[in-house]
Amino acid sequence: MPDAPPPADADTLVTAWTRTRNALKAAGVPSPVLDARMLLEAAAGVARLDIVTDPYRPLAEEARARLDALTARRAAREPLAYILGAKDFWTLSLTVTPAVLSPRPETEGVVEAALAALREDQPARVLDLGTGSGAILLAILKERPLAEGLGVDASPEALAVARANAEALGLSGRAGFQPGDWGAGLEGPFDVIVSNPPYIAAGDIAGLAPEVARHEPRLALDGGPDGLDAYRRLIPDVARLLRPQGRFALEIGQGQDADVIAIARAAGLDPEAVRPDLAGIGRVVIGRRP
Ligand SMILES: C[S@@+](CC[C@H](N)C(=O)[O-])C[C@H]1O[C@@H](n2cnc3c(N)ncnc32)[C@H](O)[C@@H]1O
What we know:
- By secondary structure, this protein is of the alpha/beta class.
- Helices cover 40% and strands 19% of the residues.
- It has 12 helices and 9 strands.
- It has a 7-stranded mixed beta sheet with strand order 5-4-3-6-7-9-8, sandwiched between helices. A two-stranded antiparallel sheet has the order 1-2.
């Protein structure tokens, strides 16, 4: 049984949660209830269960100050993942900093497509172009213990985050990370190549949610005038670096499927399908090198 409520003016877990939720809601944060709980957990060092089973637990003054500071950042529309320094992706908890895109649930479709092409009992080489936090590559390596992989990124700061994630997950022995411009200078063959490149049309970035437009790295978002620049540059590398019959999986933006399929065909690849995300939007172009 929870304890009896303390005096009305004292801050408790439940009043702090409510106050934070109202502040986030007023700031237009899209998921104020969940975000308020996550901030409270981080500021007070409590778990979800504590808030539910012990709602009238008093909040220490220092915890309240920490919560107010975190709430101000989230109300300014800083992404929750940057404030907490972590994001769940696949079965992994990844360190995330403002140097990397916060990994998205829809990107798990790239992981699923790669896993479908990789047997658990066979060694394989995987290449992740534009690896960011290392999310896609590390999720694949976690599921395929005989596979090894290389993650490439143009951002040295992103590569530092990816390396730290590989280390923390015990995957650094099988995951290499190196700076690069897509596949330039790399040598194949790879069994599977994955990428979630920047695919937002440059002119659309300012109109995105403030979390994205103001806080995520431009290098991770900007796909040039029509959003397709990265595909034009990296798909010829995919065709060169895949082994014959090797598979690729590329995340795409809404409505980009026909263009990306055409670019892949022109590079001599055989695009086979477009996987939808949970919202039914074509999200991952998959195929093989003939
Ligand atoms: C949309 S983010 C994807 C990050 C991560 N793979 C994920 O799915 O969460 C695209 C990544 O491509 C990287 N990038 C942009 N231009 C690049 C280039 N020319 N060569 C290599 N990587 C590049 C960015 O730094 C960024 O980390």
